[in-house]
Amino acid sequence: MEGKIETADKKVLVDIVKLAQKRGLKGKLGGWKEFLNSYDKKFGASMSDPSKRSHEILAAFLNTFSKEEDLKRLVQLTLQHPLYPLDYSFSSIDEEWIVINLKNKSKVMKSTAMVAVDCEMVLCEDGTEALVKVCVVDHNLEVKLNQLVKPDKEIADYRTEITGISSQDLEAVTCSLADIQKSMKKLLPKGTILVGHSLHSDLRVLKLDYVRVVDTAYIFQSLDGSIHRRPSLNRLCQAVLGHEVREKGAPHNCLDDARAAMNLVLARIKHGVDREFPIPLIEEHVSESEMAKLLLHKIPNTVDNETLHKIVLGDFKIEVKPSRKGQGEYYTALAVFRNQQEADDAYENVQGSKLKDTNGLPQKRVTFRLSSGMTVNIFVRKMATNEPNDRTPSKRALQMDEAVDASKKAKMDPKIEEDALTSFGKGDTEAHLNEIEELNQRLKQSEMEIESLRKQLTQKDFEITMLHKLVSSLKKR
Fold first, then answer.
1. Which H or E element spans position 446?
2. What distance in Å separates the CA atoms of residue 432 and residue 420, rounded to the nearest whole number?
């Protein structure tokens, strides 16, 4: 259908669009005028006469009536993502949670209505997070909900530098979480798709269980093919939309973030859901002052500063890092050292398993037992991203690198190989090159085995999660 529309005569397209207007027909982005407002930001619906619009815009509107279920596909991409079972397993569901059941499945699956949500959270004294602001927009970016919320717990940190909200802003607020849940239920009728970036964090603080979702952190693929990256909203907007949501260091704007998430989904639909959309994830610059720190994350709330100083040795200050979208059970902190060398030494002395984080950066997992007898893990990572080890190479390591480089160039210039072998020792070189090759083969084999186990675990987690949701849904009926 799409190919026929693209090549159709403009007069035919104009007649079809006029007929759609007359009958009040709506595509995935609404009627003709609604479509113009979202598709053509420059003119919008101010020039709504179809005969005055370009062939491209007419074809794009008619393609919104295509039977290809783009939105359904985006929901599937979210549900099938390897991180979904881990992120969306809300194990702490209690009586304050609401579960929105989708009863009439045939009507639900046909719904093309969309709303995007974004929330701001504060840290409470009991270590959990509470909702303080929520914004919802529709596919035209029109505001459907923009509300401050009064938490029912004592607040330990307003995170004003991130949320932009202070205690004074909440003094006259009477809206509760229960009020917001009622509003959200009204905004999600008959299968409306809920959009958000790292949406699981918003659902968790809203205490809302809903399955027809599109997570913008899942629906774009990085150029390196990694499926475990969760790009920040700012990076994603810069890569896909060509602009950032906010300047670095500026507080978050809940409304801007909700609109950004919706714009990302619209961009994905416009590009073609089933077409590959690899994006370059722009690396953020890391200054020298930031490099003289270690990142400690996934720290259970039961772990205090004294315990952290036992895990990471050295002279440093602990800075708890405000988390806008944390899980409530954990927090993140920075170990700030006087210089880069001290930070490097401290990292090398951390006793833990060497792993990689979701961005592929090296880190260490430290497992230890608390005084209560509970066994917990925390992760320690260096801030520098350009070199995995960030250590000055030894003289022998430099010699090895030179020998390996010489071996690669040997076909081009045999004299280079002879000189390199003479300076390093032919026997030593061959032995070490063989050792390196053997280690590389073993490493590749280990990585393949780990990836296979990871896939099996992910599948099992997904099956358990689906069963959990099914049981929860049956209990609510």
1. helix 426-476
2. 14
Name residue 366's beta-bridge partners.
378
CATH number at residue 344: 3.30.70.330
Beta strands in 59-113 (DSSP E): 98-99
Alpha helices in 211-298 (DSSP H): 233-240, 254-271, 288-291
Rounded distance between C-alpha atoms, residue 168 and residue 49, angstroms: 50
Q: How many domains does the chain contain in total?
A: 4
CA distances for 79 relative to 210, 213, 358, 459, 462, angstroms? 12, 8, 19, 12, 9
What is the 8-class DSSP label of residue 51? G
Closest of 354, 356, 344 to residue 312, by C-alpha: 344
pLDDT tens for 437-451 read 666 666 666 666 676
* Owner of token pair 């610059």: 285
**465 located within any domain:** no
The four Cα atoms 129, 130, 132, 135 give a dihedral, to 10 degrees, of 90
The order of strands in the sheet holding 353-356 is 317-321, 330-336, 293-300, 375-382, 362-369, 353-356
pTM over 0.85: no
15: three-class secondary structure by DSSP: helix
Residue 122 and residue 106 in contact, taking contact as beta carbons nearer than 8 Å: no
Q: What pLDDT sits at residue 371? A: 75
- Judge contact between 162 and 322, C-beta under 8 A: yes
- What range defines the domain where residue 362 resides? 288-382
Contact predicate 141/38, CB 8 Å: yes
What is the predicted pLDDT for the residue at 464?
Answer: 67
pLDDT at 395: 37
User: At residue 11, does pLDDT exceed 50?
Assistant: yes
What CA–CA distance (Å, rounded) separates 123 from 423? 61
Asked if residue 415 belongs to a domain, the reply is: yes
